[in-house]
C-alpha cells in the first residue's frame, strides 16, 4: 500500500514547539522554549467564562462570532488604533490567530501564487503556505539586529506577487517594525497592488520606547490589509484559542469562507468572556507588558551571565541568542543537548529559515514564565558547561 499522507502534507515536519515541549515533559527540564505563560489572565474573565457555561452558552455560536465579541473587537481597534470597523461585516472570530492566518491564506492564495514573508518565520506560516501550494518568497531579518532590509524587500515584491504575510511585533526575533520599515512595506504593497495579511498577536506586548503601529493605518493600506490578532498573548489565555481577523469586508469574507468548512465556529462560552476581557480588562495588557519587560531584563541579564549574549527584544515573549561562539555546529544540536546538560529547554531557529544555514546558530528563549521559574532556569544555565 502506498503512502497514506496526502502530497500537500508531505515534507511538512511536525511543529518544533510540540517536540520541544514534549522533551521538557519527558526530561523534567524547565521549558524556556514554548511561548505560553505560567499564570492565567484576569480573574474576572475566567469568572465570565464560568458564568457563560452556567448560563447555557454551550451550543454553536454563529460562525462569524457572537455579536458581543465582534463589537468588542471593533471597539478595541477604534480605542487603541483609531480604526473604524463595522462589526457585522469587517470582523470575524477565529479559533486563535493560527486559524485566522490559515483561513486567510487558504482563502486568498491559489496554488502557484507568490507570497512574500519575513524570516525567521513562525513555522505555522510555512505549513499553511505549503498546503496552499504557494510559492514562498522570504526576506530575511538578519542577526544580530533583525531589521528589515528595504532593498531586499523591494526586490522580492513585484506586480505578480499575490500577498505579503507580515508579522510585527515579530516572532521569533522580538523586533518591532519601525515607522520607516512599515512605510517601505506600504509603499511596495500599494505600488504593486498586493494584499497584506498581518499577524499582530503581540500588538500590546512592546517595551521601552517602542510602539506598535498597525500597517493598516498607513496611507493606501486599509483597503488591502487583513489584520489578525487574538486574546491569547495579551491577556495570558493562550489555551482559549480565541482570535479575530479584521479588515475590508471581502477579505474578512474570505476568512469566513474557509473557517465555515473547518472549525465552523469557535468556543461559545469563551466568546462573551473574551468580549469582557477587551472591554472591562482593557488595561491588563499594559500591566502585563510592564511585568514582562522586567522578566525580559531578568532573562537577558541571566543569559549574558551564562555566556549566551542575547538580543534584547523590543516586543513579544522572546529573546534570541547565537550559540556559534560556544562551538556548536547548529542550534538543533545545542537544544537537543541542553536538557541533559542544564535541565532547560529552548527552541532552535534553523528550521525557521528557508536556508537553514542562515539561522543555523540561533536559539529562541521565552521570558513569559513566572520569575522563580526564570531564576531557576538561569541558575541551571549558569552552572552548566554549555560549550560544544
Q: What do these coordinates show?
A:
- The structure is a single chain.
- With 388 residues, the protein is of the alpha/beta class.
- The chain folds into 2 domains: 7-41 and 284-383, Aspartate Aminotransferase, domain 1 (Alpha-Beta Complex); 59-280, Aspartate Aminotransferase, domain 2, CATH 3.40.640.10.
- 39% of the residues lie in helices and 14% in strands.
- The protein is built from 12 helices and 13 strands.
- The strands form 3 sheets. The protein has a 7-stranded mixed beta sheet, sandwiched between helices. The protein has a 4-stranded antiparallel beta sheet with strand order 9-10-13-12.
- 50% of the residues are buried.
What is shown here, in short?
With 388 residues, the chain is of the alpha/beta class. Helices cover 39% and strands 14% of the residues. It has a seven-stranded mixed beta sheet with strand order 2-8-7-6-5-3-4, with helices on both faces.
Low-confidence stretches: none
Number of strands: 13
**Ends apart, CA distance between termini:** 44 Å
**Strand count, sense and closure of the main sheet?**
7 strands, mixed
Number of helices: 12
Task: Sum up the structure in keywords.
Aspartate Aminotransferase, domain 1, Aspartate Aminotransferase, domain 2, four-stranded antiparallel β-sheet, alpha/beta, 39% helix, seven-stranded mixed β-sheet, globular, 388 residues
Annotate the secondary structure layout:
Blueprint: H1 16-27, E1 30-31, H2 43-54, H3 67-81, E2 91-94, H4 96-108, E3 114-119, H5 123-132, E4 135-140, H6 150-156, E5 161-167, H7 179-192, E6 195-199, E7 225-230, E8 243-246, H8 249-259, H9 270-280, H10 284-305, E9 310-311, E10 318-322, H11 331-342, E11 344-345, E12 347-348, E13 362-366, H12 371-383
Parallel strand pairs: 1-11, 3-4, 3-5, 5-6, 6-7
Antiparallel strand pairs: 2-8, 7-8, 9-10, 10-13, 12-13
Helix pairs in contact: 2-9, 3-9, 4-5, 4-8, 10-12
Amino acid at each position: 500500500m502506498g503512502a497514506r499522507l496526502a502530497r500537500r502534507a508531505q515534507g511538512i515536519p511536525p511543529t518544533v514547539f510540540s517536540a520541544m515541549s514534549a522533551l521538557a515533559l519527558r526530561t523534567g527540564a524547565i521549558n524556556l522554549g514554548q511561548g505560553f505563560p505560567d499564570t492565567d489572565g484576569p480573574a474576572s474573565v475566567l469568572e465570565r467564562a464560568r458564568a457563560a457555561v452556567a448560563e447555557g452558552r454551550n451550543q454553536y455560536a454563529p460562525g462569524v462570532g457572537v455579536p458581543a465579541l465582534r463589537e468588542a473587537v471593533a471597539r478595541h481597534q477604534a480605542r487603541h488604533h483609531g480604526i473604524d470597523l463595522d462589526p457585522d461585516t469587517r470582523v470575524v472570530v477565529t479559533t486563535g490567530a493560527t486559524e485566522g492566518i490559515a483561513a486567510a491564506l487558504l482563502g486568498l492564495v491559489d496554488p502557484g501564487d507568490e507570497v512574500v514573508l519575513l524570516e525567521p518565520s513562525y513555522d505555522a506560516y510555512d505549513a499553511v503556505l505549503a498546503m496552499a501550494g504557494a510559492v514562498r518568497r522570504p526576506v530575511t531579518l538578519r542577526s544580530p539586529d533583525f531589521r528589515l532590509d528595504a532593498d531586499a524587500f523591494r526586490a522580492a515584491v513585484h506586480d505578480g506577487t499575490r500577498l505579503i504575510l507580515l508579522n510585527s511585533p515579530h516572532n521569533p526575533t522580538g523586533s518591532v517594525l519601525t515607522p520607516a520599515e512599515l512605510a517601505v512595506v506600504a509603499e511596495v504593497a500599494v505600488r504593486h497592488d498586493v494584499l497584506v495579511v498581518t499577524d499582530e498577536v503581540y500588538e500590546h506586548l512592546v517595551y521601552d520606547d517602542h510602539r506598535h503601529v498597525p500597517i493598516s493605518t498607513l496611507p493606501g493600506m486599509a483597503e488591502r490589509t487583513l489584520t489578525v490578532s487574538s486574546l491569547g498573548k495579551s491577556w495570558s489565555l493562550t489555551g482559549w484559542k480565541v482570535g479575530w481577523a479584521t479588515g475590508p469586508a471581502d477579505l474578512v469574507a474570505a476568512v469566513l469562507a474557509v473557517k465555515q468548512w473547518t472549525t465552523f465556529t469557535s468556543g461559545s462560552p469563551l466568546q462573551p468572556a473574551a468580549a469582557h476581557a477587551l472591554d472591562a480588562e482593557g488595561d491588563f495588557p499594559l500591566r502585563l507588558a510592564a511585568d514582562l519587560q522586567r522578566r525580559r531584563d531578568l532573562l537577558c541579564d541571566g543569559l549574558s551571565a551564562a555566556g549566551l549574549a542575547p538580543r534584547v527584544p523590543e516586543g513579544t515573549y522572546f529573546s534570541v541568542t547565537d550559540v556559534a561562539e560556544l562551538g556548536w555546529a547548529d542550534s538543533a544540536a545545542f537544544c537537543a543537548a541542553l536538557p541533559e546538560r542544564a535541565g532547560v529547554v529552548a527552541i532552535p531557529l534553523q528550521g525557521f529559515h528557508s536556508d537553514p544555514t542562515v539561522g543555523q546558530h540561533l536559539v529562541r528563549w521565552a521570558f513569559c514564565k513566572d520569575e522563580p521559574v526564570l531564576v531557576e532556569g538561569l541558575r541551571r544555565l549558569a552552572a552548566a558547561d554549555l560549550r560544544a
